[in-house]
Give the backbone structure.
Amino acid sequence: MAISPQLSPQATNNSDLRLWLENVEKLGQLERIAGAHWDLEIGALAEVILERLSSPPAVMFESVAGYPPMRRILVNMLENVERTALTLNLPTHLNAIPLIDALRNKLRHLEPLKASVVSSGPILENQEAEDWLDMLSFPVPRWHEGDGGRYIGTAHLVITRDPENGNENVGCYRVMVQGKDKVALYISPGKHGRIHLEKSMRLGRPIPVAMVFGQHPLLFVAASQAVPIGVNEYDWAGGMLGEPIEVLRGPLTGLHFPAFSEIAIEGEIIPGETLPEGPFGEWPGYYASARRAEPVVRVKALYYRNDPIICGAPPFKPTIHGMYRALIRSAMIWNAMEQAGVPEIRGVFAPLPAVRFMTVVAIRQKYPGHAKQAAIVACQCQPGAYLGRYVIVVDDDIDVTNLNEVIWAICTRSDPATSVDILRRTWSGPLDPIIPPERKGHNSRMIIEATRPYEWRDRFPPISKISDETRKAVESKWEAELSRVASSSRGRNT
Ligand SMILES: Cc1cc2nc3c(=O)[nH]c(=O)nc-3n(C[C@H](O)[C@H](O)[C@H](O)COP(=O)(O)O)c2cc1C
Ligand SMILES: [Mn+2]
C-alpha cells in the first residue's frame, strides 16, 4: 500500500526539512516504503539498500506497522555526494574531490550568522504536556538485534546550556526511549553537552535539556561534526545556508529549537538520576560498550508538526555508509594541514570504510621530508587526531578517493623497512575496537610513505599506461565500437 507524497504545501523556508525533501525528490533520490515494522524491519531495509546500491537514495518509511500512516521515519539522508552537496548549500554536480575543495573553501571563509528568534512555526502545530505525552506515539525503530532499546535519537539535536556562562550548545548524542516521558542519552567525555552536564552535576542543579528528532540535515551536520566550542551550531548552520536559522525559545527551558523542526521535547536531567542505556551499534561497526547507567531526561513537553518525520542515521557498518562524514572530515583535515603550512596538498580523503581510522593525502613533493611532514600533520592536526590509525601519503597522480589506486601506490612505492613509521601513545577513545577495555585511551599510528622516494623520484620506473593524448585519439576514433562492447558485455559484468 503506497501513500501519495504529502509534502507540506508551505515548505518555503530554506531550513525546512520538507523543502530539502522536495529538492531531493527533484534529483530523483527519494524513495518511499510503506508497511515496514519499527522492530528491526526499518533498520534492516535501510541497511540492505545501502549494501545493494553504490549511490543509495534517501528512504522515507510511511505507514509503519501499528502507527498512523503519516508518522514517518527518514533514513539514508546523506549517503551520496549529491545530497551531501545539496545539504551543505554547494553545487550538486561536483565529484568528491572538487566538492571537498569547495567545502574547505566555504569553511575557511565561513561567517556564522546569528539565529533569528521567532515566535511561531510549524513545530507548534501540536503540543502535549507531561501527563499526556508518549514518546512511543512515534514509530521509533529498534535498528539492530543487539541494540538495548528503541533509539529515537540518531540524527538529531540535543540542546543544553552552560550553567556558568549561559552559552547554548547543539550536539548529536544518541537517545534511547525509556518510557512514555523518559529518554536516556549517552554523551562521551569531552563533548560540549557533557561539559554542561558535568558542571550542573557539580552545582547539584537539574539541567534543562531540549531535543529535536527531525530537522533539516544541515542542522544534523552542525550538531554531529566538530563545530568549535564557543560557536553556536545554529549560527554555523546559518552561515552555511546563507540565512539565519529561525528558532523558537522553548517556554519551559528557555532553550532554542528550530521553528521548522518536526518533533521537539523540553525536559530536565535531575543530578544522579540514571537508567540502563545501550548497548548500541556504534560508528566503527561494533558494539563497543556494554549496557550501563546513563543520565535520564524527564520529558515535560512535546511539540510536533502535523505528519511528523523522525530523521534517523543509525551507525551501520562503515563499509556501506557514511559518505557525508568522509567528505566533511576530509575538508576539515585538508584545511588544518594548510593552516599548519604544509604546501602542495593535492587531495585529502578519509576513505568510507575506515571512517576516522585512515587518512590518505596526495602531495606534489617539493623537498626531502615533505611527505613525512604531511603525514604527521594529517594524523595529529585537530580534526585528524582523534581515533586515527593509518595515514598514507601518495603522489598527486594517485586518486585518493579510489582505494584501488591507493593500494597500488602502497604496494609499488613503499618498502616496509624504510617507508613506515609508528607513532606511539596517540589519542584514542572508548570506541576503539582493538584496544582492550583496560587499556582504552591511547593507540598508535602507522605512517606509510607511498610516494616515489624523493631522492630518486625522477628515475623511478615509468607507469605502463597509454598517454592521455593517445587515449583521447583512440577514444574518439573508436567510440562506437567501445560503446557496443560495453553494452553487449553489461550483463556479464555484474
Ligand atoms: C550519527 C552520529 C551519532 C553520534 N552519536 C554520538 C553519541 O551517541 N554520543 C556522543 O558523545 N557523540 C556522538 N556523535 C558525535 C558527536 O555528535 C560529535 O562529536 C559532535 O561534534 C558533538 O558536538 P559538540 O562538539 O557540540 O559536543 C555522533 C555523531 C554522529 C554523526
Ligand atoms: Mn558544540
In short: DSSP finds 13 helices and 22 strands in the chain. The chain has a mean pLDDT of 94.
